[in-house]
Task: structure prediction
Amino acid sequence: MTDAWSPIGAREMRIGLIGLGSMGRNHLRVLSGLPGVRLAALSDPDVAALGAAIAGPDARAFADPMAMLALSDLDAVVIAAPTTSHLPLTLAALERGVAVLIEKPLAATTVEADRIVAAATAVGAPPVQVGHIERFNPAVLELTRLLEAGWLSTVFAISSRRAGPFPARIRDVGVTIDLATHDVDILCAIAGERPARVSAETAKRIHTDHEDLLFGLMSFPSGTVAMLDVDWLTPAKRRQLTVVGEEGMFELDYLTQRLTFARASDMTNPRLLGGYAPTFEGDLVDLPVATGEPLAAELAAFVQLIRDGGRPLVDAVDGRWAVVLADALLLAAREHRTVGLVPA
Result:
């Protein structure tokens, strides 16, 4: 390890990017427009992709990411490479005193995640932020703020739906690792705690090697219960979250960034649907959300972290828990049993 890491202040920031796949190209787009930030180095094994990406005269191109880390003078690196490469790349960056933003999931296995956490939490280590992008969705940020302000004194239940068509490019993992890691992270953040136990069912309908459907249940020590509905089988993309509590219910759409709140209704005065079906409706309020691109907010937070120091909104410990929970859900489905978890 180099000397203890310290924030860089207001000087120009030199950032490297590893991986120019779908997510990597989005990072490239946003990083290229950040003020006070210079994209100094890029790495990808695809020579054509590298050639197309190198726009600035000072940016260096590397086919080998380890060579990029060894030969470039960087303040930070964004790792958007395949999950199986996250461990060696992160350890190499931290050893050189380089701050890391690593795309989720943090690692391919819990054992690898543990190694990253150990390196990231060592005294003097540079910060590690994990790219759980939904934490930076403006609607999620507003929901979190309102929950912290006490709009729900008790959270009874949370349900999450993340569904869409099968992405043919995803072959190395199933829907639990690729998609459900978003949701287990959000559900823990909303509940404000880690679950005590999980159970799940999975199915493989289209994917040749891995599950493409997950129904999961997470039970928290406080009594809050959360449900996950994740699949690659739904023809239309859906990204939704519902939080039910004593005072009412929040509903959130990640895609439109719409957030509503339905106040708890008067149960003594039902309204009839069709003249015969009793229902109870609370007042529904559309809550104002300052919409924006979550990736831009995530990268802006990373840049501020490198300049000013502090703790990432999603650190390596949070990233590790997403991997732990994904593994536990898969184990629960595979062995048809409830899996208990050791408290954090």
Notes: The chain has a mean pLDDT of 92. Residues 316-335 form the longest helix (20 residues). The first strand starts at residue 13 and ends at 18. The two ends are 27 Å apart (CA to CA).
